[in-house]
Amino acid sequence: MKVLLIGANGQLGSDLKKVFAAAGDGVVALTHAEMDVRVSDRVAVVVGDVQPQVVLNTSAFHKVEECEKRPELAFEVNASAAMNLAQVCQKAGATLVHFSTDYVFGGYAHHTPFEETDRPAPQNVYGVSKLAGEYLIASNTDRYFVLRVCGLYGIAGSSGKGGNFVENMLKKALAGEPVRVVEDQVLTPTYTVDLAKAARQLIHTGKFGLYHLSSEGECSWYEFTRYIFECAGIKANLTGCKTGDFPSPVKRPAYSVLSKAKLRRVGLSIPSWQDALPRYLQERAQRDATAAPSVKVTA
Ligand SMILES: NC(=O)c1ccc[n+]([C@@H]2O[C@H](COP(=O)([O-])OP(=O)(O)OC[C@H]3O[C@@H](n4cnc5c(N)ncnc54)[C@H](OP(=O)(O)O)[C@@H]3O)[C@@H](O)[C@H]2O)c1
Fold first, then answer.
1. Which terminus of the chain is more exposed, N or C, with fewer CB under 10 A?
2. Of 66, 45, 16, nearest to 194 (Cα)?
3. Distance (Å, rounded) from C-alpha 134 to C-alpha 120?
């Protein structure tokens, strides 16, 4: 399968590249510096040159606080560029795989996992712009997978957010800092390796459409942090707190767990967040073990 990957050195992009290449796919991987999705003519030329069967679009403007201040940019990257990609893919006969977010929900109280058919109600500019992207894709191509994902962490760390949650928690604990984490936001943290593998399997079903794709299970950020320290064998000064303890101009969903019932209906599954985290920590340890030791040059 010939694949064009956009946002290749991002957190998810890095694992998509590894997973698809390891499975034998020909991957043309482009970073932001090599192709800006907002430049529609360039996108059309690149797709015309590469002639991919599948385009994986991980690009996004997803710093949620920044999106509130710069809604035009949020809509440019997350909605208009997604629409252009859909049009270009439709013309080229390529399948577009686009990543959306659990933040399309949150505007009304909910306590069971959201289905794809549940009414979206984004609470912030980021969520609205991503939802607009979903609609613009669906109305411009019939060969698409829109995958709503949630709480990503992967070895590359999110370039858009500066690291990932697991790394930030480990860093604080190892520095001996007290760690306060919200216990009233419930979600599903998701390992990008598991996500990349499941996305590839889903593409192979040929069953286009909108899917929820995050790890199985649910937890609060506090519960996730407690599990991080437990698995890493770290004694940390961890306490739970409420969202209101960290005043923010951005509203975030109190509950944004995504149901995988539709994924199961097409015969697929994804591991739980409890299963994924130890594997992430293992990957991280292997990376550190194989990192080249710094060489001290003496005269
Ligand atoms: N991270 C999460 O927890 C989370 C949760 C829900 C949904 N998502 C969605 O999942 C996807 C992947 O997230 P991620 O964590 O892998 O983010 P990431 O690490 O920030 O990756 C995004 C990639 O897109 C690139 N990019 C940004 N603007 C671009 C543009 N205009 N043209 C071309 N490339 C551009 C970035 O490059 P530069 O860094 O060089 O700009 C980066 O390589 C995004 O669509 C995001 O909305 C993420």
1. C
2. 16
3. 11
**Which residue among the candidates 103, 126, 191, 255 is catalytic per the annotation?**
126
Residue 292 pLDDT > 70: no
Q: Tokens 């201040």 belong to which residue?
A: 69
Distance CA 255, CA 187 (A): 6
Ligand 1 binding pocket includes 11 (Cβ within 6 Å): yes
Q: Is the CB of 217 under 6 A from ligand 1?
A: no
Please tell me the pTM assigned to this model. Answer: 0.96
Q: Report whether residue 63 contacts ligand 1, using a CB cutoff of 6 Å.
A: no
What's the whole-number average pLDDT of the chain? Answer: 95
Q: Which residues contact 239 (CB under 8 A, 6 or more apart)?
A: 178, 179, 180, 181
- Nearest by Cα to 208 from 77, 75, 126, 116: 116
Q: In what order do the strands lie in the sheet with 26-30?
A: 26-30, 2-6, 54-57, 95-101, 144-149, 209-212
